[in-house]
Amino acid sequence: MTTVLIVEDEAINVKVFSKILTKGGGLGVRHTEDVEEVIQIAQSGEAQIILMDVSLGNSYYRGKPMNGLQITQMLKANPQTAKLPVILVTAHANEGDRENLLEQSGADGYIPKPVVDHQEFLNQIRAMLPKS
What we know:
Helix content: 40-55%
Largest sheet: 5 strands, parallel
Distance between the termini: 12 Å
Order of helices and strands: EHEHEEEHEHEH
Strand order of the largest sheet: 2-1-3-6-7
Shape: globular
């Protein structure tokens, strides 16, 4: 089963995304905000795509707070995880944010929050999935 790793600190968003992905998309879901766990899941191949919140309030790596852009940069800099698609899911949706955040992070995609169109959300994720 294709699994989506959700890196998100808002429980309601995790619930909404999970429901859309499992019920509407037939996809598996994992969730964590723990940076070590994100890296471990990415390296193990347990997830085929990552939905990454930009503003994470509870994520730390080696004692330092980290946001989704920094975690994405780490994943993209590691040859073992560089090809794993990362989609930023963020409330930062002002003009220019999309391009700026994609450039800063090296992420593969961008979805603004709140997610209103569930089918479009699924379509964007499916479009980024590695072709098997």
